[in-house]
Amino acid sequence: MKIFNFIGICFLLCACTGSIPEYKPVSHTAGKTEFAHAYVGFKADKDKLKDALLKALAQRGWLVEGNAQGGVIAKRVHSDRTAKAFIVINDGEFVIDTAGSTIENKTPYIPETDLNYLLASVKENLE
User: Which domain of life is it from (predicted)?
Assistant: First the structure.
């Protein structure tokens, strides 16, 4: 009897986790091209915020590819999705441009889930 309860619980957990959306596709028909996301209100200077962001990128599996034009370039590959980010950091805020993120190397998308987890780690790292 215990084995059937265990199997039932496993099945229920698998069914629940499969319905969570992991990305937000960009609608070409609606002409949606909002790839830039601003995060403001941090009580930290540019250097402290950059340290917290770089640590969060590493914690969340992002690969920092370099610096360009005053920002950080990072990428996260997961299954068939590639999230790309160009991040500009200022005192108390940063802006992430996710243009170039793709699903199956063709469909553009906005990696909202990845960004939400990244933001949570930045907030935690600043505490």
Answer: Bacteria
Structure tokens belonging to residue 9: 């619980």
Per the DSSP assignment, residues forming a β-bridge with 64 are: 74
Bridge partners of 84, per DSSP, are 75
Give the pLDDT of residue 20.
33
Give tens-digit pLDDT for 11-50: 444 444 333 333 444 444 444 446 677 888 888 899 999 9
Measure the CA–CA gap between 51 and 55, rounded to whole angstroms: 6
Q: What is the pTM of this model?
A: 0.71
Q: Say if residues 125 and 56 touch (Cβ distance below 8 Å).
A: yes
User: Is-contact 24 109, C-beta < 8 A?
Assistant: yes
